[in-house]
From TrEMBL:
This is Glycosyl transferase. Gene3D superfamilies: Spore Coat Polysaccharide Biosynthesis Protein SpsA, Chain A. The active site is at E281 (nucleophile). One of its GO terms (cellular component) is membrane. Residues 50-65 have a biased composition (Pro residues).
């Protein structure tokens, strides 16, 4: 009897030991659903199964947008070459950090050549929305058949001797003509109604917590800017004559309540050279694709000034907007802080700059400089200038 009780105790003790060993081995192996630490990148961040990851998945899908609500039919658009990769990468990073990471809008890249794999790989990794890459048709990036090549070459040589910026550049002229009359007609752009132009090597200094595309649509705006100034007189000596020829032939395209007085000091007889700096634009593509704008561009194109002079797309766009849109349809984004060498737009108003984490120096703000056309813009629109502008004007 004593031996039977002793054997029973041994059996119970052995069972207890087996149970303890089982629990110890189970707890040390961990749940099978955790990612392997030998290759953490394969599964994203290492987290407990009870908590969602706190960093974006490294797969092909972009992180979800954080701003609530719908999205406009809109895209960023950039004209760039493969050699511009690292400069446009900086611009993209600014746009994404200050705005697009919250909205995930698409980005269209256009080039007169094919984009290489490195350009596509790097830019698509930086953009939170979809990226699209398009090649510009040769007929949109070449001399039209009505241009006298010898005459155009002589002009470039003369401008080179006069040291006019980009005066001897053929590619710059193709770029200005393309931005003036063709980018909005590229097949990739036909999918969209709104565009935001971004160039290499630009900076954005403040958080943008709302959707400028939505603002434009809700407030019936069609064109917007952040910097305005006077154009180089030497590059556009006959541009205004070409514009007057257009307005005489197509008076139906000139709207009442326009901004002629922003362009001219004498009711249209001469041009004062004010223009919106088009390296930043947010605008309506349907307006650019309208008969009015296309008639305007075709008239200027056949005048030859893109090649016989050096007409920029900035005055071409600006004159069109000021004559063919109502004052109320043009908007100045004081709250979008921006830099493109050599000018800075830093929002006027300390409270706004602090609230939106701006890192621009208000002393660098170009708005109230004597070479800026912004004061004139406010006067023509009959609007009060932002509070505090006098202080910046004195700096």
């Amino acid at each position: 009897m004593a031996n039977s009780q002793r054997y029973l105790r041994y059996i119970v003790f052995a069972l207890v030991c087996l149970i303890l060993l089982f629990f110890i081995s189970s707890s040390s192996s961990g749940p099978s659903s955790w990612p392997s630490i030998t290759n953490p990148a394969a599964n994203g961040s290492i987290t407990s199964p009870e908590k969602p990851p706190t960093t974006p998945n490294t797969g092909s899908s972009p992180p979800p947008a954080t701003a609530a609500g719908g999205r406009m039919n809109a895209t960023f658009v950039t004209l760039a070459r493969n050699s511009d990769l690292w400069e446009i990468a900086k611009s993209i990073r600014h746009v994404e950090d200050r705005f697009n990471r919250k909205f995930n809008y698409d980005w269209v890249f256009l080039n007169d050549d094919d984009f290489d794999d490195e350009f596509k790989k790097v830019t698509s990794a930086l953009v939170s929305g979809k990226t699209k890459y398009g090649r510009i048709p040769t007929e949109h990036w070449s001399f039209p058949d009505f241009i006298d090549q010898d005459r155009a070459a002589k002009v470039r040589e003369q401008m080179k001797e006069a040291k006019i910026i980009y005066g001897d550049s053929i590619s710059y002229r193709h770029m200005c003509r393309y931005e003036s009359g063709f980018f909005f007609r590229h097949p990739l752009m036909l999918d969209y109604e709104w565009y935001w132009r971004v160039e290499p090597s630009v900076e954005f200094f403040c958080d943008i917590d709302y959707d400028p595309f939505q603002y434009m649509a809700d407030n019936k705006k069609k064109y917007s800017f952040v910097l305005s100034l006077y154009e180089y007189v030497e590059t556009i000596p006959t541009l205004w004559d070409a514009v007057k020829n257009f307005t005489k032939a197509h008076p139906e395209h000139i709207v009442e309540g326009n901004m002629m007085n922003w362009l001219s000091d004498d009711d249209g007889k001469t041009y004062n050279h004010c223009h919106f700096w088009s390296n930043f634009e947010i605008g309506n593509l349907n307006w650019l694709r309208s008969k009015a704008y296309l008639d305007y561009f075709n008239s200027l194109d056949h005048a030859g000034g893109f090649f016989y002079e050096r007409w920029g797309d900035a005055p071409v766009h600006s004159i069109a907007a000021a004559l063919m849109l109502k004052k109320e349809e043009i908007h100045f984004f004081n709250d979008i802080a921006y830099y493109h060498v050599p000018f800075t737009h830093c929002p006027t108003g300390e409270e706004y700059r602090l609230q939106h984490k701006c890192h621009c120096n208000p002393k660098d703000n170009f708005d109230w400089n004597g070479y800026s056309c912004l004061s004139r813009y406010y006067e023509v629109k009959g609007k009060e200038k932002p509070a505090g502008y006098e202080k910046e004007q004195q700096q």
